[in-house]
Amino acid sequence: MADALSTLRNNLEDKIGRERHPDLTWPVVAYIAHMCDNLRIWAERIVGISRGGSVDVVPYDENALAAARCYDALSLPGALWSLGRSVDDWL
User: Fold this and answer.
1) How many CA atoms lie within 13 A of 33 on its CB side?
2) Rg (CA), the chain
3) Of 30, 64, 76, 82, which is the most exposed, with the fewest CB atoms less than 10 Å away?
């Protein structure tokens, strides 16, 4: 996973995060933020289950979370920093 994070950072080195693929809904920075949240949410849920919590998987609405966190307005450097921390939490 560390290699993937390094590759991602290298590929985005000259980007600002507002870039958008015409076939996708969110800009680059929003997808990075989504990966951060997804890793953290699932790490939290897995730890909860492993420590005796409920095994019920509680859904979340990624679009509502994106709106609440204003994914489109986040800075790419901040989102990449957060992704590194999220990867650490997941691992």
Assistant:
1) 23
2) 14
3) 64
Query: Contact, 79 vs 29, CB < 8 A?
Result: yes
Say how far apart CA 11 and CA 7 lie, in whole Å: 6
Selection from 53, 41, 48, 50 nearest residue 90 by Cα: 41
**pLDDT band at residue 42, thresholds of 50, 70 and 90?**
very high
Cα 15 vs. chain centroid, distance in angstroms? 17
Could you tell me if 91 and 1 are in contact, meaning their C-beta atoms sit under 8 angstroms apart? yes
pTM of the complete model: 0.88
**Other beta carbons within 10 Å of 10:** 9
DSSP 55: -
Find where tokens 């920093």 sit. 81
Give the model's pLDDT for residue 83: 95
SS3 content of the chain, % helix, strand, coil (to 5): 65, 0, 35
